[in-house]
């Protein structure tokens, strides 16, 4: 029980200046304490929030690192897998090219995954590659005529033997159904001969010089004409190239002049052809540079083969007693030249005809061994 007097004293003290100061101090301390508690709680909450945010950031960073690791692994495996597929495809193509050389006149249609195969022939550099990868195969000796690129899921491969007059080399011609060959009819029979010679399986057409050629969504249009220029070509310039052929002999299996043009009809260079197989090489090559480079490989082989036959003719002429055989060997030796270039097409063609005749004469001689 509080004494009534004491109670009155306390109540009276609240109105006393000193009492009021005491109560204000107590309230101030309480307010300060409450403020500190609030600040402490706020800081604790903030600390908790920062800790939670930091945990999430840490989780995101670790997750990103793990994801990046797996992406690198997947990409590496995918790259290795693609490289293996590319290597297998190019190696198989090389094998098919090699085997096709053993069967002259063969035509093959190959099914492929949808790819782009690139062909390069430059001075001292010759290879084919899969454009989707960096895998390539050097091709220093095989004589392959093709566009710079063949895209699609199939490949046509045609092989013919080049003879002058004896076998010299196998020429390979590569294309696909996305490349269209347009032969322009002329006043002679040369264009018709070429059209009949080209395989039926390739995409081709035989038209008059004023007949329209329109874009049918092919990858490329190869226009071949014999001095009679086409006048109604309506295909995209970037997808078109031209070849003008001037035959100097009696037929397309002789010799003559070539001129290559791009889609703008700007000349890409002139050259010569020697025999039908050489002319076909120009048909399947879009540029003079590629054609000339490939024919150089053919002539390297021709000079080697000619050296062998020249030596044989020389040895036979020295070992033969029969004068008829001896004369034939000597004349044959003189006709077999060993330092030839494509610019000598006319001389090579005439000499090849003579060598063939001399060899036939040897067959009718008195036990004369043949040159070839």
Report what the structure shows.
With 372 residues, the chain is α/β, with parallel strands linked by helices. Among the domains are: 177-286; 297-363. The chain is 48% helix and 26% strand. It has a six-stranded mixed β-sheet, with helices on both faces. Helix 5 runs antiparallel to helix 6 (323-335) and helix 6 packs antiparallel against helix 7. The radius of gyration is 44 Å and the shape is elongated. The protein starts with a helix and ends in a 9-residue tail after the last helix. Mean pLDDT is 84; it is low at 1-19 and 73-81.
Kindly list the characteristics that best describe this protein.
disordered N terminus; alpha/beta; single chain; six-stranded mixed β-sheet; elongated; 48% helix
Major beta sheet, strand line-up: 3-2-1-5-6-4
Q: Please bin the fraction of helical residues.
A: 40-55%
Strand elements, count: 14
Give Rg in angstroms. 44 Å
Average pLDDT level? 84
Structural classification = alpha/beta
Largest sheet: 6 strands, mixed
Cα distance, first to last residue? 146 Å
The total of helices stands at 7
- The backbone outline, from C-alpha atoms, is elongated
